[in-house]
Design a protein that fits this description.
The chain is of the alpha/beta class. The protein is built from seven helices and eleven strands. The strands form two sheets. Strands 5-3-2-6-9-10-1-11 form an eight-stranded parallel sheet, sandwiched between helices.
Length: about 260
């Protein structure tokens, strides 16, 4: 696993977008289409702005999925991840083939439909964030590393829900849904390439927990080190407590 550390958030986002765009172009050139999964949250804003501005990407042949969505939250709510996916990616690029997780719909039917679509072919590249509690998608600690379902319904822990309040999507924790649809850890690891964008001082403890010691369900994003093609992008603030002892993690300090 590679970790790249940048002086600031904007430099990190630009470099991550350059790698992401290259992966999409490579897939398009090789097989005429690209399948991507995108994280959508405050931490992904600058990255997606850079990616959607990238040149020479035939977005009409890109198929997009997203990682997670709250159960019961309408798309009109500011905290809806499918709202963010549409605004930050779909509408800016003109992607026509995209899959929304309708968390306020028939959940059993949503899972059947989206599990079938996601499993129909490999994902070329997946864009991830890492939560303040170390979660990947909405797989909070202790994360289930063994469940086979592509998407599943999970319970959100208090730290995860409080993060959403801190990011101003909800006024207090009582308004944050207690359940969500989340892509599973096993499904995340099936992508050909993983790219995590993790800026800011609030993520420093999670980076420390996930990458300074061993792989553990209590630090869900630590599982990234078991993927053969994973890159984690950090800024100086999110990397402040990083001192990895695992020789398999390659750390580069960028200017």
């Amino acid at each position: 696993m590679d970790i790249r550390i940048f002086p600031n958030r904007n430099a990190m986002a630009a470099a991550a977008a350059e790698q992401a765009a290259g992966a999409i172009r490579k897939a398009l050139a090789a097989k005429g289409n690209a399948r991507i999964v995108a994280a959508t949250a405050a931490s992904q804003k600058e990255f997606l702005e850079n990616l959607t501005s990238a040149a020479e990407i035939d977005w009409a042949n890109v198929e997009a999925f997203h990682l997670d969505e709250y159960v019961g939250l309408p798309i009109s709510h500011p905290g809806s991840f499918r709202k963010m996916l549409k605004e930050q990616l779909v509408e800016k690029t003109g992607i026509k083939n995209y899959h929304l997780l309708h968390g306020d719909g028939d959940i059993a039917e949503v899972l059947r439909e989206k599990n079938a679509a996601l499993s129909s072919a490999p994902i070329d590249i997946m864009f991830l964030g890492i939560g303040e509690n170390g979660h990947l998608a909405f797989n909070d600690p202790p994360a289930d590393f063994e469940v086979e379902d592509p998407y599943l319904v999970v319970q959100l822990d208090e730290a995860c829900r409080q993060q959403q309040v801190g990011e101003a999507w909800f006024s207090d924790i009582s308004q944050v849904p207690e359940r969500a649809i989340s892509m599973s850890i096993k499904q995340i690891l099936k992508a050909k390439e993983l790219l995590a964008v993790v800026p800011g001082p609030k993520k420093a403890d999670a980076i420390c927990a996930c990458f300074n010691s061993g792989v553990s369900p209590m630090a869900p994003a630590s599982i990234l080190r078991r993927h053969s093609n994973a890159t984690v992008y950090l800024d100086r603030e999110s990397a402040a407590l990083l001192h990895p002892r695992d020789g398999a993690i390659h750390v580069t300090f960028e200017r």
